[in-house]
Amino acid sequence: MSRRAWAAGVAAALLCAAFAHFCVRIVPADVPSAPAPPPQVDRRSDKGPLLIPVEGVPASALTDTFTQARAGGARPHDAIDIMAARGRAVLAAADGRVEKLFWSQDGGRTLYQRSSDGRLIYYYAHLDGYAPGLQEGQVLRRGQRVATVGSTGNADPSAPHLHFAVNVMHPGEAWYGGRAINPYPLLVRH
């Protein structure tokens, strides 16, 4: 075995160990099991899994924060946080259309994107700024720059990140509706 192959093997083992240490949660046997996962969304029209919506962030850097409590346990997170440097490009996770550009106290500068088939809303929050010329109704292509990472709203200014959520929509349901599903498995599928 060459030194390069050996070094690559060691690096892979270290990455696996880091993943297990920081991302795997062990639950005691007496804790009730998690609810059943949501039904699979029909994704035949997609080209594959969702694109990680922050430029340069690999799947190995993601942590599933969907089930974590927020506001002192008063509400579920219903999203994942993707940590990144302020100003890093936020990309469209899939094809779709800008449904709403909105400012909220909690989410700060936000973007709601409806999927091409209308069945999903992708929610991007705590944005520092929108891409130049971005407007409601605009068609987006997967990977297109839509904004930059920030810490607007109730985000900690010292921890800029993208709050990314996916909601399943009923026909005709407004941009602020829907049922939250965990985006993590949609971002890390291979």
Structure commentary:
This protein has 190 residues and is of the alpha+beta class. It has a domain at 59-66 and 74-188: Distorted Sandwich (Glucose Permease (Domain IIA)), CATH 2.70.70.10. Helices cover 14% and strands 30% of the residues. The protein has helices at 3-23, 184-188; strands at residues 69-70, 75-76, 80-83, 89-91, 96-104, 108-115, 120-130, 139-140, 145-149, 161-168, 179-181. The strands form two sheets. Strands 3, 4, 5, 6, 7, 8, 9, 10 and 11 form a nine-stranded antiparallel β-sheet that branches.
H/E topology pattern:
HEEEEEEEEEEEH
Percent of residues in helices? 10-25%
Assembly category: single chain
CATH superfamily of the domain at 59-66 and 74-188: Glucose Permease (Domain IIA)
Beta strand count: 11
> Nearest-angstrom radius of gyration?
18 Å
Q: Strand percentage, roughly?
A: 25-35%
Signal peptide: 1-22
GO biological process, one term: proteolysis
Organism: Sphingobium limneticum
Domain M23ase beta-sheet core: 76-168
Q: What's the topology here?
A:
Layout: H1 3-23, E1 69-70, E2 75-76, E3 80-83, E4 89-91, E5 96-104, E6 108-115, E7 120-130, E8 139-140, E9 145-149, E10 161-168, E11 179-181, H2 184-188
The gist of it:
The chain has 190 residues and is of the alpha+beta class.
